Amino acid sequence: MIFEFELRCPITADLGLIRDLVRLHGRYCGLPDRRLEDLVLAVNEAVTNVFDHGGQSGLITARADAGHVVVDVLDFAGLLTHDHLTAGDLDRTASHGYGLWVIRNLCDEVVLEHTERGSLLSLRFRRRRPAAAEGRSRQPLETMIAHRVDPELGSTYAEHRNGPRTHHA
C-alpha cells in the first residue's frame, strides 16, 4: 500500500512555520539537502511576495509526483503577471526586488497560471529516489506534526508546536 502526503496550509505571517512545513514535506519526499534548502528559500520568497505585493492571503499546496516536488503558491489577489515573472535583468543596486529572480534561478521549473481563485505560482524541483528505496527508513509523519482542519479554508494543515516567527511588512 502506498500513501501520498500532500501539504495544504493557508498563507500566514508566520513565515517560520511555513518554512518548517515546506522543509518537512521536501525532506519526506526525498529532496537532497541542498535542493531542500533551495525549495524552502524559493517558497519563502513566493510567500513574502504575497504579503508585499499581493493580497496578503492565499494557500500553499505541496505534493510530489514521480520525479518532482511541486509547491503551488496561490495568491488570492491574482496580481502576479507573466511580465513580473519574466522581468529582465536584476537591478543589483536595488534594496528589494530579488524574490522572483531568486525563484526563477532556484527552481527547475516555474509556472504561473491565473485561476478563478487568483495567481497560482507552481515551483517544481527534481527529486532523487525516495528514501525508502535507498534503504533508509522514514520517520512517521504522525510523530513529527499534528494535523488539524482549518474551518475557514476547509483544508488540512500541520500545526507547529513552537512559538510564532512572523513576517513583518
TrEMBL record:
Q: Please report the stretch or stretches of sequence annotated as the Histidine kinase/HSP90-like ATPase domain.
A: 15-124
Q: Where is the composition biased (Basic and acidic residues)?
A: 135-151
Please give the organism: Nonomuraea monospora
Name of the protein: Histidine kinase/HSP90-like ATPase domain-containing protein
- Superkingdom assignment: Bacteria
Kindly state which keywords UniProt assigns to this record, in alphabetical order.
Answer: Kinase, Serine/threonine-protein kinase, Transferase
Stretches the record annotates as Disordered? 132-169
**Gene3D superfamilies found in the cross-reference section:** Histidine kinase-like ATPase, C-terminal domain (3.30.565.10)
